[in-house]
Write the structure tokens for this entry.
Amino acid sequence: MIRRYLHALVVSCGMLLAIPLNQAGATEQSYRDLLDTLRDNGTLDLVQYYDLVDALDETDTSHEETEGGPGLGGRLMVDLAKYNEDEVDLGDGTELRQARLGLEGSFDSAWGYELGVEFADGDADVKDAYISYQGFERARLQIGQFKEPFGLEVLTSSGSITFMERALVSELVPGRHIGVGLATHGKGWSLAGGLFGGAFDDDSDDEGDEAWGLSARVTAAPWRKKRKTLHFGAAVSTRSPDDEREISFDTGPESNLTDVSYLDTDDIDDVDQVDRYGLEAALVLGSWSIQTEYVQAKIERREGMSELEFDGSYVYVSWLMTGESRNYRRQKGSFSGIEPDSDRGAWELALRFSEFDLNDEDVTGGAAEQVTLGLNWYANSSTRFMLNYVRVDNDEDADADGDVSGDDDPEILQFRAQIDF
Amino acid sequence: MIRRYLHALVVSCGMLLAIPLNQAGATEQSYRDLLDTLRDNGTLDLVQYYDLVDALDETDTSHEETEGGPGLGGRLMVDLAKYNEDEVDLGDGTELRQARLGLEGSFDSAWGYELGVEFADGDADVKDAYISYQGFERARLQIGQFKEPFGLEVLTSSGSITFMERALVSELVPGRHIGVGLATHGKGWSLAGGLFGGAFDDDSDDEGDEAWGLSARVTAAPWRKKRKTLHFGAAVSTRSPDDEREISFDTGPESNLTDVSYLDTDDIDDVDQVDRYGLEAALVLGSWSIQTEYVQAKIERREGMSELEFDGSYVYVSWLMTGESRNYRRQKGSFSGIEPDSDRGAWELALRFSEFDLNDEDVTGGAAEQVTLGLNWYANSSTRFMLNYVRVDNDEDADADGDVSGDDDPEILQFRAQIDF
Amino acid sequence: MIRRYLHALVVSCGMLLAIPLNQAGATEQSYRDLLDTLRDNGTLDLVQYYDLVDALDETDTSHEETEGGPGLGGRLMVDLAKYNEDEVDLGDGTELRQARLGLEGSFDSAWGYELGVEFADGDADVKDAYISYQGFERARLQIGQFKEPFGLEVLTSSGSITFMERALVSELVPGRHIGVGLATHGKGWSLAGGLFGGAFDDDSDDEGDEAWGLSARVTAAPWRKKRKTLHFGAAVSTRSPDDEREISFDTGPESNLTDVSYLDTDDIDDVDQVDRYGLEAALVLGSWSIQTEYVQAKIERREGMSELEFDGSYVYVSWLMTGESRNYRRQKGSFSGIEPDSDRGAWELALRFSEFDLNDEDVTGGAAEQVTLGLNWYANSSTRFMLNYVRVDNDEDADADGDVSGDDDPEILQFRAQIDF
């Protein structure tokens, strides 16, 4: 009879084998528990036990390889905005803020890749698109298009930032270019640097040489505690312009639906070099956090013309009312998204003050201050809903390079539904 | 003690089985049979038995979650058209009618998503792009871009419609916009409604406020029989124009390859409101079916200008010569594709009469009648080949807003190869 | 003994768990070994044994069906180019040379599909997009958009060609169009032919009839030896122009980053027909190979105008320094990529001479000769890095249709990082 049982079990194991498995995380833990139990009650001796554990660990590696196969994902953001206009029309309405598809994976422990494409505006804009080499201990080499290492909020995914849009001053941050970068990290610090050319569409009309730049960022997080993080960061970037030697900065209010760019320097000519400096700090204490950044850009022009200096900053406070804590990624020196503790989701209240000044010397690009009050509901770790109320205070020169009147101070109420998959 | 081992092993096998399955249907049944056998012969007592069955049922739930992971798919349509031209050139040739990629999935029983992108025309046009909430009993909430609930043929996927192109009058149906919708259904009825803004590319040049609209659709299917369906539906939509207060309707013949739009109202100005009404009916009797729709649009203009009224309709008969029956989706009140009964595929013969009138008061957009004879071969449930012969009868005003001569009556022969994956 | 059984079962369960959750090849072999062992030691009788083996074989079939589901992949190429300019600016810089996503699969042994989209230039260009029927023995029918059967280097994937860019003369090869094709092959030969319309974006502005063409290619590979291949091929194509009866040829140097097209015939009018002829040969001897092609295009114009004749050719030698051999795909008569023998990757040195002449009769499109020295490192079968040094020798007429000066002889140094996933 025992043999019958055994036969039945072998058959059932055979059947099990037929099952194409996907994600055995929980099951694996149960299996490890089983092995421990069988060792404890003497069914397995220690040699057998460790053989089985080792086999499991090995398959874990192969499991990682499997996970390294093309991982498909995407993100969707749907926005609604209502403008309480002051002077100019801003255009109430709806939009797909993001509609992204992406693939990432790796072939072995060494070579990996990522390719993300954004479709929301009817075009197909390639976002991250790089090959990575992880074969070094604690260092990672990337070649392709990705974000230059500069800025805390810009290096935080748009799916994980606290407010619907990044602060005004992110216009000064270099962002994505094609290049090569190296990143490393220790227990409480990260360091990244890179050499970059222009963006992938930088070269459409003109056959002059592309712009190129160098940037580097260092972060330190002295505490290694759960729900407590202290973060400091500093970044520098220097960039040579392309053969046309022009540069311009422009940005709308912290709302994407309108196309009005109040702040606009127009083309600045005869540029020799652009240097940028960034300082960051953040403190997480349980469900409370505060984050701040300052960015400055210095534009050297040809002999005889004065240097230009633009800068901006923001500071915000966030309170996760349901008790969660913001997640810090020590290896990258940036934050990832909120994971709700309960099935009812997480609620967050946040307040940001942001200022940006594009006026200097002969350039009157305008200056603005904005205050944003945000309320977020994280239905689960992939789905969130955001409500932002923004007060805009533009100065006289914030006239969209003459297209609208200055000193225009609208209010914005905007809503977002977002899902990451 | 042996029994303890066996029990431990059976439990461990149960855990293994819990591994998220892909298509473990058959295996799972075998495993349930095994559990029954082990209970019957006393190896498992009832407590053990129900523990294992419960565990299995729970993993069934997780099975659904796994299935909810990103499901990748797409569709390809390749067209060939030969025009027997009357007056103007229509341009014989070939085209990729559709080349779509899409992702859909859900995270748990509550939150899901869909994102589809169309590449056939060299751009990347986002189609369905929404977040859905299915946590209610029998109701479904959607936010994002999707089709307004209006029209039987428009709500039937382009991969499942009976002819190569939808009837002319589908130009009056609202189609996809960004908004929020709620759908519910009972045993023999469905009800859907929503509030919508403009389409995702509605806001490119102008900063006026977007258009917005409300629509609702109710369907009833009084019979619950296999191979027999009686469907009735009605829909209303009201839409406020955007700040420019313009609207226009235009459509070519029921053939996509040519760019000639015989019917064209040009811009209609000073629009206050557009109301639409739709009526639908369909009857399936075994392999025969008949389907018909009528749509009317009323355009209110500023005080003193007369109201405009455009309308159109179609009626068609389909005969599945190989004996299959059209599949009705009771929950959505629309039809899905044909599944061939045999390996040799299914054959369908269909005839449609379609008419559309864009002439009213001061607007002479033209009117047309078209007759289409269609022959479809469904090689399998994913692959089909279509041959359509279309006779076009345009009136004098069907002059593409003056670009071509009116009363132009071409014939069209067109072929499509289609695959859904 | 019972304990031994139990131990065997626990081990087998451990193995089961080890299944690399997607591709169970190795595990399945272990399981088959286990079944053999249990049969040999009497635990399983022969009936039980074959039941289990049969069950396993059946699940194998379903496994293959699963593999037929959508296979997702992509390719990324990141380029850097430095031009040692002679006369005109070529524009040093970086670019995403390719960023592709694609899906392919099949439903059963008969029907399959492929859809690939290229995003590198900000648009979404559909590449291969076809439905295939493989139900015939040794023959394959395709309908949709794919490469016309013509040319060895053009029919080799851009991810597998030996140099960063194809030779100049590939401008004369028809490339991708929408049509229907049939391919068959024997032990040492392949034959493919097709009827094609225009490319998918051929019809945007004009409603004249599309161009259409016929092409056919035959290849022979008389040897069936490992690491030794002798390949011959010949192709013909005839194409009628569209209603505008214009054709033009233009190409830049063998570098994609610059937009300068030195060779340019401008529009050639009154075209009646374009006939093309291609000859190919390749010899692989271990890690050495030589490959050459000649392509000629004859353009017949209206009565009274002389026929035009353009042609070009290339020959290259490749040496895989680490001992690998180029892989020939007998069924397609083309080459696939290099698979490194060792973990340290494969190194390849290659030299190409290329010439192309677009001068004939009244057309002075220019002529060029180019020599390319290439060094490739294949880190693994999916990842490679390429360095190309190109010397360009343009003639007086190679003036980009008057936009630049002729006799411009730049040198090019370019680098590529590439990953296929």
Q: What stands out?
A: Helices of chain B lie at 2-17, 25-40, 46-67, 152-155. Chain B has four helices and 20 strands. Residues 46-67 of chain B form the longest helix (22 residues). Chain B touches chain C through 46 residues (CB under 8 Å).
